[in-house]
Amino acid sequence: MIYNQWYPVLDSGELKKGKLLKIKRFNENMALWRNDENAICCISDKCCHRGASLSCGRITGGNLECPFHGFVFDKTGNVKVIPANGKNRPVPESMKVQAWQTFEGNGFIWVWWGVEEKATPEPYFFDDLKDFSYSWLKDHWNVHYSRAIENQLDVVHLPFIHRTTIGRGNKTLVHGPVVIRKDELLSFYVRNVADDGNTIPLRQDEITDYQKLPHLSFRYPNIWQNYISEKIRAFAAFVPVDEENTIIYIRYYQDLIRIPGLRWLFNYIGKISSIIILRQDKRIVITQLPKKSSVRMDERLIMGDKPIIEYRKHRQELIEMNGET
Question: Which of the four CATH numbers 2.160.10.10, 3.40.50.300, 2.102.10.10, 3.40.50.1110 does domain 5-118 have?
């Protein structure tokens, strides 16, 4: 996982007030809760005293009480009270666990994975989605999150994996695609056509008016948007669990229907179609080896793979600049 980045780790609705939640992200077991101010608290799920799971404890006064010996942890991971030593005895500074900086916004709980002093005030999100309604789902994939991301950057696979859904029409020939990266935003423009046996795929620099083509955008480290139309979008967050597991949050965004009942029905239909398409991808992607991608690996890429090539290239640049865990 690229260091010094904001990552969405949960849908906001999954963390209820008054409830402790255990999750595994970045190969770390984490305990999360909301304090009395409804702020998100995220600390290591392993007590520094005897190694018990803190998420089995309880919330008291906005802090977390270990279920084993009653040590009380605040959102910074510091122990505030050791009951066996007495309430008024000072707590040694060494009595603490890892804590992570959090942010709640755009319907997600985000964790800053990196050096706290380098954290930006808030994560990047696609601003054009903020007035849309959406339905959502999550799915567990037994792959490194880089493989899951690359599936959504792959413009070559549509007529094969999705031949019965979004890949209908047997458009196997790929022009370009045109790939543009500006800072951490990677955008690509796609034109796939049926192969008539005579057409030669155009290179990126041969494609004019590419801005009029269907396009998708990926923002490092792990969020993606498909501009289906002006009023309909698909969104994904690829949440790293560990080196071999990823949770994908898919959202179907729309701004076509605003009447409450009809809006719910339209969003629900979008959710069902998203599940079908996602599972078509999953069936194949989980078979890829190795489970994690990198710049140099035993693959023979083609022109149509340019979004994947650019993703790997800049991901490596970010790793060299910030580190990887």
Answer: 2.102.10.10
